[in-house]
Specification:
Strand content: 25-35%
Order of helices and strands: EEEEEEEEEEEEE
Helix content: under 10%
Number of helices: 0
Radius of gyration: 17 Å
Distance between the termini: 43 Å
Shape: elongated
Strand order of the largest sheet: 1-2-5
Amino acid sequence: YNGAFSRNIAVLLPTGELDPEFEPGTAFGAGVVDHLAVRSDSLIVACHSSGTYNGQPVRGITWIEPDGDPATAFTSPLWSGRAAMALRPDGTLLIGTYSWEGMPGAHGHILQLQPNGQVDHEFAPGSGATSTVYELSIGTDGATYIAGTFKYVDGNWRPGIARLQVDGSLD
């Protein structure tokens, strides 16, 4: 970046320079980082296609400390299949997926993780979306807007776009 070497993740200072305190080592190796979010406690949440972070095995969502070390208190239930990610102000994380078979807590291409990385089983979108959720956005009222290639959400005709309440139910 800007003449300096960095892997597939970096932190920029307000001046636009690389943050020298952020040292991710080998980061995600040859993997691709699909989405990033920064929580209010400064933890970085990365959705990625790599199986490692700084040489250590990780799953498809990795929490990273502000200094670049992995946040070992968090373990993602997902190996892959992320298409979208949105972070709520309370630290819960919404995930839109390409494929959801075998993903614990996934309801038809959408699920929510608690701030500790565990599946939030109180988020209940019924049968969810019938196909990929490519975009997620959190409204000012906490509702979730989803967009993708789906035709139905929880059995209701919602071709390509839908709004979910905070609890995941269809609006």
